[in-house]
UniProtKB/TrEMBL annotation:
<feature type="region of interest" description="Disordered">
    <location>
        <begin position="536"/>
        <end position="560"/>
    </location>
</feature>
<feature type="compositionally biased region" description="Basic residues">
    <location>
        <begin position="1"/>
        <end position="42"/>
    </location>
</feature>
<dbReference type="InterPro" id="IPR030378">
    <property type="entry name" value="G_CP_dom"/>
</dbReference>
<keyword id="KW-0539">Nucleus</keyword>
<dbReference type="GO" id="GO:0005730">
    <property type="term" value="C:nucleolus"/>
</dbReference>
<feature type="compositionally biased region" description="Acidic residues">
    <location>
        <begin position="483"/>
        <end position="512"/>
    </location>
</feature>
<feature type="compositionally biased region" description="Basic and acidic residues">
    <location>
        <begin position="53"/>
        <end position="83"/>
    </location>
</feature>
<dbReference type="Pfam" id="PF08701">
    <property type="entry name" value="GN3L_Grn1"/>
</dbReference>
<dbReference type="Pfam" id="PF01926">
    <property type="entry name" value="MMR_HSR1"/>
</dbReference>
<keyword id="KW-0547">Nucleotide-binding</keyword>
<feature type="region of interest" description="Disordered">
    <location>
        <begin position="470"/>
        <end position="516"/>
    </location>
</feature>
<dbReference type="GO" id="GO:0005525">
    <property type="term" value="F:GTP binding"/>
</dbReference>
<feature type="compositionally biased region" description="Basic and acidic residues">
    <location>
        <begin position="98"/>
        <end position="109"/>
    </location>
</feature>
<feature type="region of interest" description="Disordered">
    <location>
        <begin position="1"/>
        <end position="118"/>
    </location>
</feature>
<keyword id="KW-0342">GTP-binding</keyword>
<feature type="domain" description="CP-type G">
    <location>
        <begin position="128"/>
        <end position="309"/>
    </location>
</feature>
<protein>
    <recommendedName>
        <fullName>Guanine nucleotide-binding protein-like 3</fullName>
    </recommendedName>
</protein>
Amino acid sequence: AELRKASKRLSCHKRYKIQKKIREHHRKVRKEAKKRGHKKPKKDPGIPSAAPFKEELLREAEQRKQRLEELKQKQKLNRQKEHEKRRKLEAKKNAATIKEKAEGKESSGKSKGKTKKLLNKNSKKSFCRELMKVLEASDVVLEVLDARDPMGCRCPQLEQAVTCSGGNKKLLLVLNKIDLVPKDNIEKWLNYLKKEFPTVAFKSATMMKDKTMEQATKRHARVDFSETCQYFGSKCLLKLLQEYGRTQDKVIQVGVVGFPNVGKSSIINSLKGKRACNVGLARGVTKSVQTVHLDKQTKMLDSPSIIADPSNSALALALRSITDPEGSDSADVLEGVNAIINHCSKQQVMMHYNIPDFRDPAEFLSLLAQKRGMLKKGGVPDIENMAKSVLCDWTGARIKYYSQPPEFQKPPPYLTEQKIAEMQEGFNLNNLEQENSNTVQALKHPSPASSIAFQSAGMTNGTIEENKVIEEGSEWGNMDTSKEEEEEEEEEEEFTESDDDEDNVEENDDDVKEVNEGFALVSLTRDFLFSGNERSRSLSFSLDKPADEDDAYDFNTDYM
């Protein structure tokens, strides 16, 4: 028999006792308040309608209020930067102590081979190691590109490593997410990319059916998964790989590589026809090599994402970095959103988000946070979390934007005519072009008016060799002790008060004084209008008083 939940009913004796205690408590609170003689503050009537220059005074008060808020925001950002510097300095010192302990343990008899085995799977070095395994084992490498920014998804280091490796390795480009880009733009990119590498147009399924999906559809019959489960271009890509496998007369291994969130695992799931690899909106879901057998002649190798080099622009790091926006520093996320907004058409961004005109990316985030109700305590827009949300939208498949291919075809230095011919050898390019046109025609594409025009930053440099990776947590461990000491001294000097910092503090004080002077002027005007002859006599005295002695203007009582 099932156990019943405990009843919440109380006996009358207990309920009346609780009510009595509550009445006694309220009586005690009222009595104490009466002793203190607490009175409600009188509400300020504000500036009357008959006051001269009322609108100008109110406008000036509003402007000074905004300036004070901006000043507070600047001071807050400065405090955050100082906090980040201190945090990095502490992390550096902790890393140095950890390194000393590790060296002591190694000298006591532990081998270096064991320490290498203990490498964290989430580390960048582990990602590079797994990626190199895929590149070495693959006969054909599929470089997956986001159709919204194909040039920004290309990695010159990866392409050079494949084309110059020898051993009859092939490199194919897969243009994924073509349903998010206008039809004319897709055709332009296909014509541009096919002159360098064989290119396949593809639309992967974002959600494949498995046992859990079937159970969900049975429970919720109204849920429609038809759009998310559709995929296009899989037959073309499968046919291309199978024909190449027949010419090689062996089981071919196909490696799928690319930057985060381009749809590597989704392409494998679409080719397989069911969910074989884990997929998700977060970056870096795949952490190691995964093998999926398509048929007897074809084996797919899923790989971790390419690590974007720190020397790239802020735009490239925002869209292609392996670090998830939720785990990134707020300053880096804000810088990334600023770069994205500055590389887009302003009018189209306003139409897409349905917000009024904005002066800069900070105002854009503030307006969007107010529109979506993402506010902090006191109704202040939560700009940091709004920036993370916007960045997730742009790296995912929510925003429809497109970039134009370069006007002139200029292949990279490592891609000579001989290399291009070698990469195209063994593939039926005429049949591939026909299949691509059929795939593009079968899909429903957004119009250029409903998409956002985007200016690409060009190819993104990546790190594919393990020895060139610098971990964020242990990057100090690879440096010499002399360099560590120099950096520590430099960072400590930054925390000492300099003349420039003192000047900034004085400037901030001047701004606050100016704001207080303006508020004092508004309060004087109100006093003059409400007062009699006595107030008018003392007006000259109050005007001669310095602004520091006047009371600051209360924003809460300002009538706007």
